[in-house]
Automatic annotation (TrEMBL):
<comment type="function">
    <text>Probable beta-1,4-glucan synthase rather involved in the synthesis of the xyloglucan backbone than cellulose. Seems to work simultaneously with xyloglucan 6-xylosyltransferase. Xyloglucan is a noncellulosic polysaccharides of plant cell wall and consists of a glucan backbone substituted by xylose, galactose and fucose.</text>
</comment>
<feature type="transmembrane region" description="Helical">
    <location>
        <begin position="190"/>
        <end position="210"/>
    </location>
</feature>
<keyword id="KW-1133">Transmembrane helix</keyword>
<dbReference type="GO" id="GO:0016757">
    <property type="term" value="F:glycosyltransferase activity"/>
</dbReference>
<keyword id="KW-0808">Transferase</keyword>
<feature type="transmembrane region" description="Helical">
    <location>
        <begin position="528"/>
        <end position="546"/>
    </location>
</feature>
<protein>
    <recommendedName>
        <fullName>Glycosyltransferase 2-like domain-containing protein</fullName>
    </recommendedName>
</protein>
<keyword id="KW-0812">Transmembrane</keyword>
<feature type="domain" description="Glycosyltransferase 2-like">
    <location>
        <begin position="327"/>
        <end position="529"/>
    </location>
</feature>
<dbReference type="GO" id="GO:0048868">
    <property type="term" value="P:pollen tube development"/>
</dbReference>
<feature type="transmembrane region" description="Helical">
    <location>
        <begin position="112"/>
        <end position="136"/>
    </location>
</feature>
<feature type="transmembrane region" description="Helical">
    <location>
        <begin position="70"/>
        <end position="91"/>
    </location>
</feature>
<comment type="similarity">
    <text>Belongs to the glycosyltransferase 2 family. Plant cellulose synthase-like C subfamily.</text>
</comment>
<dbReference type="InterPro" id="IPR029044">
    <property type="entry name" value="Nucleotide-diphossugar_trans"/>
</dbReference>
<feature type="transmembrane region" description="Helical">
    <location>
        <begin position="653"/>
        <end position="668"/>
    </location>
</feature>
<dbReference type="GO" id="GO:0071555">
    <property type="term" value="P:cell wall organization"/>
</dbReference>
<keyword id="KW-0472">Membrane</keyword>
Length: 698
């Protein structure tokens, strides 16, 4: 087993501890040496590190330093060899597991897109074989230049048989017809690409202006100062959840510690869990905090209709809700700080047109793996730039579904929660905007939450986030056109909010970089300019990383990963736009239950929770208690039998083969930048297709 080297990897965590250096040699002929203090400086001097004058060197110390370097190098080589040895076996197991699960439910989703990519790949292989044959037989034609602007077409006497003649006919057809079609598509995508890049640039300029002028929503004075006469409004807090055993405890604990008068606060735990053992655990947690004087109630729906929207709608229909003025919503993995309500509720004071106050998300597992780091780049840009700029200049943005406070009157005037889409948060925000309500975004108020750590969870989340808006656009378009808001607000909703940022972005990303670019390698007459492939995408990636400067080393992986995710986003966009089956599919994002500083309070209540669970079981009838215990045992058995495992993603794998084939074809045309882009993008698709980017399960 290779030793731990104590290195700092850009995709991992800093595992160094202390200042001492320990060398452990696995060979029994060697001993263990600990280098610390003055001796360490002497050894460093042996390899060229500056030291004070007067200190000498010895051959023995220099030898130990060389042994240390050799041992580290051997450890690195052993680790690389172990990975290279284990990778083929792991990939083989994933292929077998995927083949076994292919007959289960869900098989066939995205089948049309997969068949298109697969057919494109087969044609690319045939085209590559044809081009290689032509190259080795000398049939290829010289590329046009400024001196000779037209291709040299061989005379009849130069044609070498029927195969050569067929190849020349194919080249003529390719140049006359296919090239024109590709050029039209590429110019259209380039136009969309430039427009979207300009939109991104304008948002960044707006963010810079906000920073320069220090524009942000402010609370006048200190409303909570003694003698201010501030009357705390009635606040309802809702925590919707569904089978989220890993995170329910920390979220309930954080919400119950909100600094607000207990007689002015009510907490609703809205449990849609189908597992009775999880229901019992959540009931016990609610009972524990109820015994401590917190005004908290537990609600459970037997029929989970409408998903999260149906859950919130059912909770808002309670009679006691009419006594409350505001409602704060937190998903099951969100942990607000105790002063959250004190930082958000006062913004409603003296602002009757304000309907929503949205806080920013902060993440407890940003540095967990490469996938979480790349997600952090996207979400930092979303909150720091998109939400903040739209909130400051337009008083409108999409509600993020959690970590926000609504004025209940705004919800009621807008029709309440509707179950027609899987993006109920965006739905209510659009309808509230059409009714004249304003929103503000608080960039300095952050709520802790968790990022998906596995690619499977992230992929399902992105599918819902990109199919839902297109489905909503179909439903909201007539209401937007007939609404009484100004024309420029209608244009902003239709052209920017929906079309440009929700439809055009995934469309051109997939079409330009995954279809047109590899196609131009087999039709070299329609070449994409270098600035489209390299310069502009790198500049846009640089702008995306600006809100999270610590992520700058990941600019190239981020660019490649965003192009890789375009196939998932494009598939989701099409399914939502044309109302396909997966557009109304809601899958709860898998959580890991990562800890944070608020877990100190959670740990302090472990014993109390056990007591509450015992008391709750005593209150249940004997038959019901036996049934609950039996269901809990069955749940534990299912968790023991069903093991989490990494998967194989066929669309990404076939696309990787397609891009690598196109990269091989580009070598025949000596297209340098195109080759490197296709090579690295193909490797990126390969890593994602083998599920090697996120959480790895042994």
């Amino acid at each position: 087993m290779a030793p731990a080297l104590g290195l700092v990897y850009p995709w991992g965590r800093d595992v160094r501890r202390g200042a001492s250096l320990v060398v452990t040699m696995e060979n029994p002929n060697y001993s263990v040496v600990e280098i610390d203090g003055p001796e360490a400086e002497v050894l460093q001097a042996g390899v060229g590190v500056p030291m004070d004058k007067g200190r000498g060197r010895s051959a023995k110390q220099f030898t130990w330093v060389l042994l240390l370097r050799a041992h580290r190098a051997a450890g690195c080589l052993a680790s690389l060899a172990a990975v290279a040895w284990a990778l083929p076996a792991a990939v083989t197991k994933r292929f077998r597991r995927t083949a076994a699960a292919a007959e289960g439910p869900g098989h066939g989703r995205g089948l049309l897109l997969y068949r298109f990519i697969k057919g494109f790949f087969v044609l690319s292989l045939i085209a590559l074989a044809l081009e290689l044959t032509a190259y080795w037989n000398g049939w290829h034609l010289p590329k046009p230049s400024f001196a000779v602007p037209e291709l040299h077409v061989p005379e009849v006497v130069e044609i070498q048989g029927w195969a050569h003649s067929a190849y020349l006919s194919w080249m003529s057809f390719r140049a006359d017809y296919i090239c024109r079609l590709i050029e039209f598509l590429s110019k259209s995508c380039i136009l969309l690409f430039v427009v979207q890049s300009l939109d991104r640039l304008v948002l960044c300029v707006g963010c810079f202006w906000i920073k320069l002028k220090k524009i942000k929503p402010r609370i006048e004075g200190d409303p909570f100062k003694e003698g201010s006469g501030y009357v705390h409004p009635m606040v309802l807090v809702q925590i919707p959840m569904c089978n989220e055993k890993e995170v329910y405890e920390q979220s309930i604990s954080a919400v119950c510690q909100l600094d607000w008068p207990r007689d002015r606060l009510l907490i609703q735990v809205l449990d849609d869990s189908s597992d009775e053992s999880i229901q019992m655990l959540i009931k016990a947690e609610v009972s524990k905090w109820n015994q401590q004087g917190v005004n908290i109630i537990y609600r459970h729906r037997v029929l989970r209709t409408g998903y999260k929207a149906g859950n919130l709608k059912s909770a808002m229909s309670c009679d006691y809700v009419k006594n409350y003025e505001f409602v704060a919503i937190f998903d099951a993995d969100f942990q607000p700080s105790p002063d959250f309500l004190k930082k958000t509720i006062p913004h409603f004071e003296g602002n009757p047109e304000l309907g929503l106050v949205q806080a920013r998300w902060s993440f407890v597992n940003t540095d967990e793996n490469l996938l979480t780091r790349l997600q952090n780049i996207n979400l930092c840009f979303h909150f720091e730039v998109e939400q903040q700029v739209n909130g400051a200049f337009l008083n409108f943005f999409g509600f993020n579904g959690t970590a926000g406070v609504w004025r209940i009157q705004a919800l009621e005037d807008s029709g309440g929660w509707l179950e027609r889409t899987t993006v109920e948060d965006m739905d209510i925000a659009v309808r509230a905007h059409l009714n004249g309500w304003k929103f503000i975004f608080l960039n300095d108020v952050k709520v802790l939450c968790e990022l998906p750590e596995s690619y499977e969870a992230y992929r399902k989340q992105q599918h819902r986030w990109h199919s839902g808006p297109m489905h909503l656009f179909r439903l909201c378009l007539p209401d937007i056109i007939t609404s009484k808001i100004s024309s420029w607000k209608k244009a902003n909703l239709i052209l920017l909010f929906f079309l440009l940022r929700k439809l055009i972005l995934p469309f051109y990303s997939f079409t330009l970089f995954c279809v047109i670019l590899p196609l131009t390698m087999f039709v070299p007459e329609a070449e994409l300019p270098v600035w489209v492939i390299c310069y502009v995408p790198v500049c846009m990636s640089f702008l995306n990383i600006l809100p999270s400067p610590r992520s700058f080393p990941f600019i190239v992986p981020y660019l490649l990963f965003e192009n890789t995710m375009s196939v998932t986003k494009f598939n989701a966009m099409v399914s939502g736009l044309f109302k396909l089956g997966s557009s109304y599919e809601w899958i709860v994002t898998k959580k890991s239950g990562r800890s944070s500083e608020l877990d100190i309070f959670t740990q302090s209540g472990k014993e109390t929770k056990g007591t509450a669970l015992g008391q709750l079981q005593k209150q249940s009838p004997d038959g019901e208690l036996a049934q609950i215990n039996m269901s809990k045992e069955q749940h534990d058995k299912v968790l023991h039998d069903v093991k989490k495992a990494n998967k194989i993603y066929k669309k990404e794998l076939v696309l990787s083969m397609l891009l690598l084939t196109a990269a091989a074809r580009s070598l025949l045309s000596a297209q340098g930048i195109h080759f490197y882009f296709l090579l690295f993008q193909g490797v990126s698709f390969l890593l994602v297709g083998l599920d090697l980017i996120g959480e790895q399960i042994s």
